[in-house]
């Protein structure tokens, strides 16, 4: 594990130098430093958010950063302010599927909030909060496409997120099990919005990712009625906040904040804001998701 982490650290710093972002790393969490104590001393907390993942994190038409994930992060900051009885500044950093894990493991951010599935492989290098969102993978296609299920994408060009390893592995399993036959051609994109652009340009035949992401892509299209989401869930995807390993006190605080949001109704208000009938991406909460949230309503 230490060797793997060392390789990851070296790779990250090399990338940071190339991108010219080393100036943002002076707030990195060093070694065993208690993250909660650092936040209290500095009066600020650094969080990573998506820029092209509607409605979890995106740049709106006015150029402002907005989304469900940002609202949840803001609620965590409010709870930090109550705990420390002082203002806490939220410093936002852009992250994408390729950078989100490394930004947490190297201490650039204390938490990454976006559409990130909790997986056992990711648990090897980072920690996660309790799951706060439950969805599954489906397909987005043009309304007149003959594709109506995963059985129809055999031999087709299918786009998916390059950093969405859980989705990629899910598709690989479907191919191995003969659910997609012959194998489709996987076309990888750094961000979902780039994949949707390729779908609009006819460069791919379908886009594959979590249903919540597909609903966001369709909702933001110029003509949403030109697109349809098809296929039953290929996999179930529980989302969690990405947290650094070895910061149990910080993880416990974040989980308690999340549980309190669910219990006092703030979470439902935010869900309705983004996924309700008048939200950016109307997406009724499934029965499985409702049970998940009820199970997280831990007693005090």
Automatic annotation (TrEMBL):
Belongs to the bacterial solute-binding protein 3 family. It comes from the Bacteria. InterPro entries: Bact_solute-bind_prot3, Iontro_rcpt_C, Solute-binding_3/MltF_N. The keyword Transferase does not apply. The keyword Secreted does not apply. This is GltI. Residues 46-277 form the Ionotropic glutamate receptor C-terminal domain. It holds the Pfam family SBP_bac_3. GO terms for molecular function: ligand-gated monoatomic ion channel activity. Residues 44-278 form the Solute-binding protein family 3/N-terminal domain. One of its GO terms (biological process) is amino acid transport. The gene is gltI. Keywords: Signal, Transport. One of its GO terms (cellular component) is extracellular region.
């Amino acid at each position: 594990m230490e060797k793997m982490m060392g390789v990851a650290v070296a790779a990250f710093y090399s990338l940071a130098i190339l991108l010219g972002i080393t100036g943002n790393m002076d707030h990195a969490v060093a070694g065993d430093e208690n993250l909660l104590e650092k936040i209290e001393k500095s009066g600020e907390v650094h969080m990573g958010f998506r820029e092209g993942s509607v409605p979890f994190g995106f740049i709106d038409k006015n150029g402002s950063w907005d989304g469900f994930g940002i609202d949840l992060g803001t609620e965590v900051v409010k709870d930090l302010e109550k705990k420390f009885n002082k203002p806490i500044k939220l410093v936002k950093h852009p992250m994408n599927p390729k950078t989100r894990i490394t930004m947490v493991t190297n201490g650039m951010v204390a938490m990454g909030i976006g559409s990130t599935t909790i997986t056992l492989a990711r648990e090897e290098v980072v920690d996660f909060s309790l799951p706060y969102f439950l969805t599954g993978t489906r397909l987005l296609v043009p309304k007149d496409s003959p594709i109506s299920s995963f059985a129809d994408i055999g031999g087709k060009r299918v786009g998916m997120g390059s950093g969405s390893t859980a989705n990629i592995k899910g598709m690989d399993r479907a191919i191995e099990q003969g659910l997609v036959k012959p194998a489709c051609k996987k076309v990888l994109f750094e961000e979902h919005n780039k994949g949707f652009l390729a779908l609009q340009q006819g460069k791919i035949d379908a886009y594959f990712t979590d249903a919540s992401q597909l609903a966001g892509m369709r909702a933001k299209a110029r003509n949403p009625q030109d697109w349809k989401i098809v296929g039953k869930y290929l996999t179930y995807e529980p989302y969690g906040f990405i947290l650094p390993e070895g910061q149990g006190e910080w993880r416990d605080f974040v989980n308690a904040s999340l549980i309190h949001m669910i219990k006092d109704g703030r979470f439902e208000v935010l869900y309705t804001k983004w996924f309700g009938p008048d939200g950016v991406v109307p997406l009724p909460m499934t029965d499985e998701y409702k049970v998940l949230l009820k199970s997280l309503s831990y007693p005090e």
